[in-house]
Write a structure and sequence with these properties.
Layout (H helix, E strand, L loop, with lengths): L1 H6 L8 H20 L4 H8 L3 H10 L4
Helix pairs in contact: 2-3, 3-4
């Protein structure tokens, strides 16, 4: 994040949350699914998500 702010060069930051989420969410889903042995219900429970929400995110990241 510090590098991001340095690279702005005086420009206003925008959509920081979306930028960070896009970088972190897919690898997080991959690690948790691996830990859960591919069991989506268990992975969703570990993440505190509904299984359908997990599946939507997996589709969004082309993991299905």
């Amino acid at each position: 994040m510090e590098q991001y702010f340095q690279d702005l060069d005086g420009e206003q930051p925008c959509a920081i949350y979306d930028m960070v989420l896009a970088r972190v969410e897919k690898p997080l889903l991959e690690v948790v699914l691996d830990y859960a042995g591919g069991n989506q219900t268990r992975a969703a429970d570990l993440l505190g998500l509904n299984r359908n929400t997990l599946r939507k995110k997996m589709k969004m990241y082309q993991m299905l």
